[in-house]
Amino acid sequence: MHASRTLAVAALAAALSLGRCGRAAAQAGTPAGWQATPASVLKGALRSLAASQERYRAVHAVYAATADRLGLKADPGVRLEILAAGADGWQAKAVHAAQPGRSCVVWVGTLAAEAPRTDGDREMAGEEGVPLCDRMR
């Protein structure tokens, strides 16, 4: 595994761990009316997908070409789509039913295709393993 991919995976794993702990702490100490934003939900879904992709690749030597193969259960109203996948990398997009025409994207590793772009702002994901989202309303 390349050093940059190893660092990206480690960062994603740390974010997932902190996210789980942070959610529990936040839920315990926040007002009853607090809700996650669509962008934060999508970023969390893409981080979970990234962790699942790494587990899948460890067993199969390639990344999963569809989210179904990963057995992920996304939050209601969230759709995960793997745009490209191979032995050396993958790209994915997440959309939220409450934000039509908007999305978040992420990539890991190397592929022949350029980095994915968001649906609304058409921004290209720049940093490996870091989800990028359209401006959400």
Features:
alpha+beta, 2 helices, single chain, globular, four-stranded antiparallel β-sheet, 18% strand, 36% helix, 137 residues
Q: How are the strands of the biggest sheet laid out side by side?
A: 1-2-3-4
Rg result: 15 Å
Strand content: 15-25%
Q: Number of domains in the coordinates?
A: 1
Helicity level: 25-40%
Distance between the termini: 38 Å
Structural class: alpha+beta
Shape: globular
> What is the residue-averaged pLDDT?
82
Number of extended strands: 4
Largest sheet: 4 strands, antiparallel
Identify low-pLDDT runs.
6-28
The ordered H/E elements are HHEEEE
> Helix count?
2
Task: Sum this structure up briefly.
Helices cover 36% and strands 18% of the residues.
Write the layout of secondary structure elements.
Layout: H1 3-29, H2 38-60, E1 78-85, E2 89-96, E3 104-109, E4 132-133
Antiparallel strand pairs: 1-2, 2-3, 3-4
Helix pairs in contact: 1-2
